[in-house]
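DOMAIN: structural biology
WANTED: fold as tokens
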Amino acid sequence: MSAEAMVHIVDDDDAVRDSVLFLLATARIPARAHESAAAFLKDLPRLEAACIVTDVRMPEVSGLDLLRRMRERGLDVPVIVITGHGDVPLAVEAMKLGAMDFIEKPFDDERLLAAVRNALDRERGVLAERAHADEIHRRLVTLSERERQVLDGLVAGKANKVIAFDLGISARTVEVYRANVMSKMQAGSLSELVRMALQAGIEPMSGAKA
């Protein structure tokens, strides 16, 4: 388990918090306990490679309220909701609000651990994708304006001759710029270059000829 992975347990029940903390400790998964959703939101921790385990029923700020407020703040962190008997409608509502999973009490230890590991794995994947996109953008800024125009043409699916016509340069010159783009972007093939561009959300530069 990654050192930066963290599970935040948000529950007003001392016994449940202690139980989940102990379970995660035995699995060597770092965790922090919060006595209420209000306390969690007031002292909002850094939420990277993290997930939240919360009860759907809590006084003042419920698990559903917590999900709503996280959505309002743009926090896309996996949330696992613990529900009591007869709370399935609330659990379904929680899923609609963005909860990743729900587990009914009394919950099975392995079921909860599997859900937590799945949530943390998802978060690590999101962080890895974000880091990759950031790296792509760092490479993009090294391109000259002309190289970026050639890249735009390639992403648009245009052949070298078409790009050359659009930019008013020779096809041979486009090939040179294309080679420079491949090198600077560290792309091993055209398909990899296009995939990188799509991952970074690259759009044609304004002012480029169609």
About this structure: The domain at 142-199 is CATH 1.10.10.10 (Arc Repressor Mutant, subunit A). The longest strand covers residues 50-55.
